[in-house]
Design goal:
Helix content is 36%, strand content 21%. It has 19 helices and 23 strands. A hairpin with a 6-residue loop joins strand 4 and strand 5 (145-150). Helix 2 (28-48) crosses helix 5 (189-200) and helix 18 crosses helix 19 (621-632). The structure holds adenosine-5'-diphosphate. The site of adenosine-5'-diphosphate has 22 residues, from helix 2, helix 3 and helix 4.
C-alpha cells in the first residue's frame, strides 16, 4: 500500500484557491492537460533529435483522448517524456513548481524549446472537474512506471505501477453533475472536439479521439426500404495543428484567409482586407488581422467588446484581449500569437504586460499603414471602410484630448464643396489656392443643407474649397486637430473669418461705424439671445446669418441639446450678421431714422430666419407668428 502524503502546506491553500477561484471557465482544464502533454512530447522530441535511443519520429507523437461515459472517466494520454517517481513528487506534489521551467533552464534556456507551461499550476485545474485524478507515468530512460493519485486537498499517493510505453496517462474521474454544472458534458464527443478546436487547435502534435458517426445502412433509404442507420467509429485528429498565421504568406490564398475569417469570427461577409504580420525584435509575434467590410450591429454601442484573440505558442490564452487594440481600431478582428508572453498562474491574466504593450503598439502601426495603403491604392475599398468605421476614426482623433490625432489625421475624410464627394485633408491642402490661408469647413446635417448655408457664399465665391462636416463628432475632431500641414482650420461661421481684402476691411469698418446705432437697437430687441449684431463680410446674396464667438459653434449647440442630461444647457454665443449689400440693409437704415419699433420687429424676424436656415428651432414660435401677423396687418 502506498504511503499517503500531504500536499505541502502552501500547496493546500493554493489548490483550494485554484479549484474555487483562479479560473473563470472550468472547461480550460482540458487545454491545460493538453498543453502539458504537448510540452512533454516537445521534450522527448527535442531529445530524439540527438538521441537515437528514443526510437520515435516526429509523426509518431500524439495525444489521445478517451471518454468512458459509463464510468464517468476521461483519459488523456501522451507519449511524451514521462515523469519519474521523484518528478511526480516534485512536479505534482508542489503547486507552482514547474518542471518545464527547470527543463528549459537546464538546457541553457534555449529558445527553440517552445514550451507553453512555465508556471506550474495548470495541472491542478483538473480538480475543477474531477473528484479523483490519476497520473500513470513512465519516464524516458526508466524501466519503472509510477502512479500518482489524488482526490484533491487531502493529499496524494505515489506507487509503482504497470505501464509499457514511455509517456503519461491522466485519468480523471469526473465529479457528479449538479444543478449548475454538467460535468458529464466533458465526456461528449462534440464537447471535447469543440474544446480542442477552441483552445488547442494549433498544438503541433495530433490530438486524436475515437469519434462515432451515423451512416446510412447500405441498401436502406431507397424508395421501398426506409432508412436505417448504423454507427461507425473511427479515430480522428481533432486539431488542425499548423496555425494559418505561422505559414508563409506565399502559401496562403486569399480564399483561405477569408474562409478562416468567416469561420472564426462568424461573419457572413468577406473581410475588406487582411493583414498577416510577422514581427521580430522588440516584440516577436505573428498576427492575422482583418478589417470587416461592415460594422457589426452593436459596433457603436456599449455592448461591443473590442479585442484580439491572444495565443501563446499556438495555445489560446484569451478570446478577447482588449489591451491589444486601441479604441480607434476597435473594429479590427483577428489574433496575435507570441512566445514572449510571461503568463501567470491561470494563463488568463498576463503577468507582465510590457510585452503585450509592445505588441499592441506594433499592431497599431501595422493597421494604420495598411489603411493608408488602402487609401492610396484602393480608394473605393477605403471609402467602404470609411462608411463603416470612419466615425470611429473621427472619435479617435477627438478622444483622449487628441492624443492620437497625429496617427489618425491622414486617415480622415470629409465631404467637400468641390466635388460633393469625400476628400482627404492632404487632397484639400494640396489644391488650396495660393492666397488661401485656411482650411474652411461648414457643419450641418447633410451635404445638401450645408451647401445652401449663407455663410459659405463668399468663400465659395473666392473659389476656396469647403469641407462639409455632417456628423456631430466632426467639428469636435477638427477643432482638436487645430491645423493640418500648418494650415489652420476655420469655420465658415467663425467670427474672425479674415477673408476681406484690406480695402474691403476698411470699407466695412466705416460702414459698421455708421450703423452702430441701428445695430444696437436690434441687439436691444433681441436681448441676450445674441451677443452682438453686426455687418457681415461673408454674405453675398442672403440677407442675414448666424455666426458664433468662441469655441462652441451652432452645430455643437445642436449636438449638446440632443444629448441626454444636457443640464448645463451649453449654448453657442450667437452673432447676428446682416448683409450690407442686401436691400434689407437699406430698409433697416431707413427704419432706423423713422420707426425704431419696426426696426426692432424686423430685427427679430431676421434673427428667426437665420435660426431656421441653420436648422435650429425658433425660440418662441407663437410670439413670432403674432409679430408677423401684426406686420401683415400694419399694426406695427
Ligand atoms: P506547468 O505546465 O505550468 O509547468 P503544471 O502544474 O501544469 O505546470 O505541471 C507541473 C509540471 O508537471 C510540468 O512542468 C511538467 O514538468 C510536469 N507534467 C505535467 N503534466 C505532464 C505530462 N503529461 N508529462 C510529463 N510531465 C508533465
Amino acid at each position: 500500500m502506498a504511503e499517503a502524503k500531504q500536499f505541502k502546506a502552501e500547496s493546500k491553500r493554493l489548490l483550494d484557491m485554484m479549484i474555487n477561484s483562479i479560473y473563470t471557465h472550468k472547461e480550460i482544464f482540458l487545454r491545460e492537460l493538453i498543453s502539458n502533454a504537448s510540452d512533454a512530447i516537445d521534450k522527448l522530441y527535442f531529445k530524439s533529435l540527438t538521441d537515437d535511443g528514443v526510437g520515435l519520429k516526429k509523426d509518431d507523437f500524439q495525444i489521445y483522448i478517451e471518454a468512458d461515459k459509463d464510468n464517468g472517466v476521461l483519459k488523456i494520454t501522451d507519449n511524451g517524456i514521462g515523469m519519474t517517481a521523484e518528478e511526480l513528487e516534485n512536479n505534482l506534489g508542489t503547486i507552482a513548481n514547474s518542471g518545464s521551467l527547470a527543463f528549459k533552464n537546464e538546457n541553457g534556456g534555449a529558445d527553440d524549446i517552445d514550451i507553453i507551461g512555465q508556471f506550474g499550476v495548470g495541472f491542478y485545474s483538473a480538480f475543477m472537474v474531477a473528484k479523483e485524478v490519476e497520473v500513470r507515468s513512465k519516464a524516458y530512460g526508466s524501466d519503472k512506471a509510477y502512479l500518482w493519485k489524488s482526490s484533491g486537498v487531502d493529499g496524494y499517493t505515489i506507487e509503482e505501477c504497470e505501464k509499457d510505453s514511455v509517456g503519461t496517462e491522466i485519468t480523471l474521474t469526473l465529479k457528479d453533475d449538479t444543478d449548475d454544472e454538467n460535468y458529464s458534458d466533458y465526456l461528449m464527443q462534440w464537447k471535447l472536439k469543440s474544446l480542442v478546436k477552441k483552445y488547442s487547435d494549433y498544438i503541433r502534435f495530433p490530438i486524436k479521439m475515437e469519434m462515432e458517426h451515423d451512416h446510412l445502412k447500405e441498401g436502406t433509404g431507397t424508395d421501398d426500404i426506409p432508412p436505417e442507420y448504423e454507427t461507425h467509429t473511427a479515430v480522428e485528429t481533432l486539431n488542425s495543428m499548423v496555425p494559418l498565421w505561422r505559414k508563409n504568406k506565399s502559401e496562403i490564398t486569399d480564399e483561405e484567409y477569408n474562409k478562416f475569417y468567416r469561420e472564426k469570427f462568424y461573419d457572413y461577409n468577406e473581410p475588406l482586407a487582411h493583414i498577416h504580420a510577422k514581427a521580430e525584435g522588440t516584440a516577436t509575434y505573428d498576427a492575422l488581422l482583418y478589417i470587416p467590410s461592415q460594422a457589426p450591429m452593436d459596433y457603436y454601442t456599449k455592448e461591443y467588446e473590442k479585442g484580439l484573440q491572444l495565443f501563446s505558442s499556438g495555445v489560446l490564452i484569451m478570446d478577447k484581449c482588449g489591451d491589444l487594440l486601441p479604441d480607434h481600431f476597435s473594429f479590427v478582428k483577428g489574433l496575435a500569437d507570441s512566445q514572449d508572453l510571461s503568463l501567470n498562474i491561470s494563463r488568463e491574466m498576463l503577468q507582465h504586460d510590457r510585452q503585450l504593450k509592445l505588441i499592441a503598439k506594433s499592431l497599431e502601426r501595422t493597421v494604420k499603414n495598411e489603411l493608408k495603403k488602402m487609401l492610396t491604392n484602393e480608394r473605393e475599398k477605403y471609402e467602404k471602410f470609411w462608411k463603416a468605421f470612419g466615425l470611429q476614426i473621427k472619435f479617435g482623433v477627438y478622444n483622449g484630448y487628441g492624443a492620437n490625432k497625429e496617427l489618425l489625421k491622414d486617415l480622415l475624410m470629409f465631404h467637400s464643396s468641390f466635388e460633393k464627394k469625400l476628400v482627404t485633408l492632404d487632397e484639400y491642402v494640396s489644391r488650396m489656392k495660393e492666397d488661401q490661408k485656411y482650411i474652411y469647413y461648414a457643419a450641418g446635417e447633410s451635404v445638401a443643407q450645408i451647401d445652401c448655408l449663407p455663410q459659405t457664399e463668399v468663400i465659395k465665391d473666392k473659389g476656396y474649397e469647403i469641407l462639409y462636416l455632417t456628423e456631430s463628432v466632426d467639428e469636435f475632431a477638427v477643432q482638436m486637430l487645430m491645423n493640418y500641414e500648418e494650415k489652420q482650420f476655420k469655420s465658415v461661421s467663425a467670427s474672425d473669418l479674415d477673408i476681406e481684402t484690406p480695402e474691403e476691411k476698411e470699407e466695412t469698418k466705416k460702414l459698421a461705424e455708421d450703423s452702430k446705432d441701428m445695430f444696437s437697437c436690434i441687439k436691444e430687441a433681441l436681448g441676450d439671445k445674441v451677443r452682438e449684431v453686426r455687418l457681415s463680410e461673408r454674405l453675398k446674396t442672403h440677407p442675414c446669418c448666424l455666426t458664433n464667438e468662441g469655441q462652441i459653434s451652432l452645430d455643437m449647440e445642436k449636438t449638446f441639446a440632443s444629448m441626454p442630461g444636457n443640464e448645463h444647457n451649453v449654448k453657442a454665443e450667437k452673432v447676428l450678421e446682416i448683409n450690407p449689400n442686401h436691400d434689407i440693409f437699406k430698409t433697416l437704415q431707413k427704419l432706423n431714422e423713422t420707426d425704431k419699433n419696426k426696426l426692432a420687429a424686423y430685427g427679430k424676424i431676421l434673427y428667426a430666419q437665420a435660426l431656421l436656415i441653420e436648422g435650429m428651432p425658433v425660440e418662441d414660435p407663437l410670439a413670432l407668428s403674432e409679430l408677423l401677423c401684426d406686420l401683415m396687418t400694419d399694426k406695427q
